[in-house]
Write a structure and sequence with these properties.
heterodimer; A: 294 residues; 10 helices; elongated; B: 268 residues; mainly alpha; membrane (chain B); transmembrane (chain B); transmembrane helix (chain B)
């Protein structure tokens, strides 16, 4: 379990992260989203003890990261798959860390096999593709059999097959009680993988909830023969109307209310249904758009 | 990547201990463990092994040159030791520098410091590991010295001597350790391998050239090479304060500064 409470990071006069709080529960995958420079990486770095927070706390299983005697046994971290020594082989990279974590040597080979890198075990990491480095990074994160995973852009550079594999792995991990937080720019992938979302914009949390909740459509979508007339009729009926791009209207009311209002005004309807949930992409831009953003 | 497509999805659940071998309980990281890890890191890459091999080859070459260019009279073990030490003392500090800088240039600091968040401990382990590795390398060079002295006795008509052996070895190991710590300290302060090596070699040399011109005899207080020389010869010539000051400024100060800086440095 990850608990972040009122985390703030200031660099001089600029505030990178301001009063960020959220929790990630066991058995769930939380997507951590935000545009570049929103404070995502800074938050993950404070969570993993790399950057001391200006104020607030972040704990994993009740302890601050730096207080964990052997963090790799509790939490698997991959912040940048490219940050691996190019001159070491894949197996040596894992064997070194296995030794540090106090797990048997065989664990390195086991993990290489689990991520599909057995055939490349003896090759130097410098010769790995980015997707292979991601797999190695995942293997490294899983090495100590942690209960928590913190992954920054784990799907970056992976092919579609790799992305699907990763999704299966993470869902499997969570289904066995693991806690996962991952950041990603691949919104479609996030939508397909996570249960919950924490969205950060301008250093603050702008949304925090379950994926279904955040993406749930609200209101009713209606399209009529005479869009302007229909709009007037619905507004006159006291309903809140938001015109769409294709002449459709989104109304903050039930289908029945909309139908009655239209019938009363003699408007002919072409379409009347429950509004679709906004896609994650729309939600993302809606939440993180700032006046200053160019 | 295409070769992975068949194998990868077939084994999605193997990473959890429940599905494989049970892991031993988690324990803290002992300092000895950290030192062992750092030692292994200095030797498990091609660059690390090449560096050590180069030091040994240069020492061999120097001793071979020495044995084929013997002067008149009795040949001492120290002749071979100092021949072998020249290159060794020059390159060993690079092991120290690289122990510190490679984490940052190869960006492995990210993994290292997430797995071991107490950075000062890790940095201290690097110092100890660099000294240990250098001591082993130095011991091989010393062994070469014995072999060449024995060869001299066996193959030439020169008489050989091991007079003053203990002092020579003590001086050699002590200077070696100071050099390596100084290299590691510079590497900890300046996280770029090339820049750190350059500064390590140029700054004290520049001082030993410019200092006397500017400060006359007072320059001795900061001349680290002369200080090393006096230590290597186990003869401080009544210059104990000067020696300690030079070591303090060029070795101790950068070490403390390096530990402080690298414990606060932003890991990219």
């Amino acid at each position: 379990m990850i608990t972040v409470e009122n985390l703030t990071k200031r660099y001089g006069s600029t505030t990178a992260v301001q009063d960020v709080s959220f929790t990630v529960q066991p058995g769930s995958i939380t997507g951590f989203l935000g545009p570049n420079g929103a404070g995502k990486s800074t938050t993950l770095r404070m969570l993993t003890g790399l950057t001391p927070p200006s104020s607030g706390t972040a704990t994993i299983a009740g302890k601050r990261y730096v207080e964990l005697p052997n963090p790799g046994r509790v939490v698997g971290v991959m912040l940048d798959a490219a940050a691996q020594h190019a001159g070491r082989t894949g197996r040596e990279t894992l064997a070194l860390n296995a030794s540090l974590l106090g797990v048997p040597k065989g664990r390195a080979d086991e993990m290489l096999e689990a991520v599909g890198l057995s055939h490349a075990a003896k090759r130097r990491v410098g010769q790995y593709s980015l997707g292979m480095r991601q797999r190695l990074g995942i293997a490294n994160a899983l090495l100590g059999d942690p209960a928590v995973l913190i992954l920054d852009e784990p799907a970056n550079g992976m092919d579609p097959e790799g992305i699907r594999w990763m999704r299966g792995l993470l869902q499997d991990f969570a289904s066995r009680g693991g806690t996962v937080i991952l950041s990603s720019h691949l919104l479609g992938e996030v939508q397909a993988t996570v249960d919950r979302l924490v969205v950060i914009g301008g250093g603050r949390i702008v949304a925090n909830g379950s994926l279904d909740e955040l993406l749930a459509g609200t209101g009713t979508l209606v399209r009529g023969l005479d869009p302007i007339g229909l709009n007037q009729a619905l507004t006159a009926a006291g309903l809140s109307v938001e015109p769409g791009l294709d002449g459709s209207l989104r109304v903050d009311a039930t289908a029945e209310q909309v139908g009655r209002a239209a019938a009363a005004a003699g408007q002919i309807l072409l379409e009347l249904r429950q509004s679709d949930g906004a896609g994650l992409e729309d939600l993302f831009f809606q939440l993180t758009a700032t006046p200053a953003a160019a | 990547m295409t070769t992975l497509t068949e194998t990868a999805p077939a084994t999605p659940a193997k990473h959890k201990a429940a599905a494989g071998t049970a892991l031993p309980p988690a324990r803290g990281q002992s300092f000895l463990k950290l030192v062992t890890i750092e030692l292994r890191k200095s030797l498990d890459t091609r660059s690390g092994r090449v560096l050590v091999a180069a030091i040994l080859l240069i020492a061999l070459a120097a001793m071979t040159w020495q044995i084929t260019h013997l002067g008149e009279g009795t040949v001492g073990f120290d002749a071979f030791l100092s021949a072998g030490s020249v290159g060794t003392m020059l390159i060993l500090p690079v092991i120290g520098v690289m122990a510190m800088t490679s984490e940052w240039t190869q960006r492995t600091a990210l993994t290292t410091f997430t797995l071991s968040p107490r950075r000062v401990r890790v940095q201290l382990a690097k110092f100890v590991s660099a000294i240990a590795l250098s001591a082993v390398v130095m011991t091989v060079v010393v062994a070469f010295g014995f072999v060449y002295t024995a060869l001299t006795a066996a193959l030439t008509d020169h008489a050989t001597t091991y007079a003053g052996l203990g002092g020579q070895l003590a001086g050699a190991y002590l200077t070696m350790a100071l050099n390596v710590v100084m290299g590691a300290a510079f590497g900890a302060v300046i996280a770029q391998t090339a820049v750190a090596i350059l500064v390590f070699f140029i700054a004290p040399t520049a001082w030993s050239l410019a200092g006397p011109a500017l400060f006359k005899d007072n320059a001795n207080w900061l001349d680290v090479f002369s200080a090393f020389g006096r230590i290597a010869e186990r003869n401080l010539n009544g210059m104990l304060p000067e020696t300690l000051t030079a070591i303090g400024v060029w070795v101790v100060l950068p070490t403390v500064l390096g530990l402080w800086l690298s414990s606060r440095r932003e890991v990219k």
